[in-house]
UniProtKB/TrEMBL annotation:
Pfam families membership: Abhydrolase_1
Name used for this protein in its record: AB hydrolase-1 domain-containing protein
Record region (Disordered): 48-68
Ranges of biased composition (kind: Basic and acidic residues): 48-59
Domain AB hydrolase-1 stretches: 72-304
Taxonomic superkingdom: Eukaryota
Species name: Urochloa decumbens
Amino acid sequence: MVNLVEAQKPLLHFLVRRAGLRQHTVDVDGAGTVITFWVPKDKPTVRDSAAEATTDKKPPLPPAPAKKNDRPAVVLVHGFAAEGIVTWQFQVGALAKHYDVYVPDLLYFGGSTSPSTDRSPGFQAECLAAALRKLGVGPCAVVGFSYGGMVSFKMAEAHPDLVRWLVVSGSVLAMTDSISEASLERIGVSSSAELLLPDSVKGLKALLSIATHRKLWFPDRLHRDYLEVMFTNRKERAELLEGLVVSNKDATVPVLPQKILLLWGENDNIFNIELAKTMKEQLGEKTMLQSISKAGHLVHLERPCVYNQRLKEFLASVTATENPNPKQ
């Protein structure tokens, strides 16, 4: 029987290609760590440069510095329940008209993998930063959702030369003991894996119910097909969840130089708006918080038009100093 979720992928990929992106795989370390991406089709990639070097009998040149007429780069970092292009399917087309959009799959999502046993968000951040540098991405805006937000915070802290601006939705600086316990108690589950790694139609329905403001209905077959396609590498992903939690005494608030937008669903039941308000105070005056009404944790999917407009307004404002004529 045809998997309905898998069957929709060719259409989604067609639309993403129409928006100007193509698929590419980056060998991060030469030791088996690879990250799959959707990248701008008119930008040279690592493989392209290597092919040119072989033809010309010369070593590949380092990435050229950004030029004044280069479009700003935007990196979209997905959450835990889907790979990159599925998570950001409503944002890619809206952003690709005026920005160079990069959509990675984090390790153990999509085609990305690593032989390393490190499951921390810091390791994800280091691998993603290395891959972006190999792609020639210079100072960029990073948009992180949920788990991807935690990875994005780590990357912004460790690589401020790469991450110039940051947008985060439905996430926290770090998953501390207290935040984890309070969130799980509020939601009514015993562990993060129970919520984020469902193995049944009932479990997936519960996740969607918690993650959305509007109550959605899909046939059971679609839930089963989604579980089969999107929840692969279950062992590694369970280890990623274990690697998220840090003790309260070890948690620190980083000093981030970036301008930051916290773009939140007002009715987020996983990381509620009060957590976002606290985080804004912790991060300081360079951080803004905007909430979107009638939207839950999956704010970018529930209200994509409003989300995209807020996102584009922020990107236009922060990139205006480098591009005096930003477009919407």
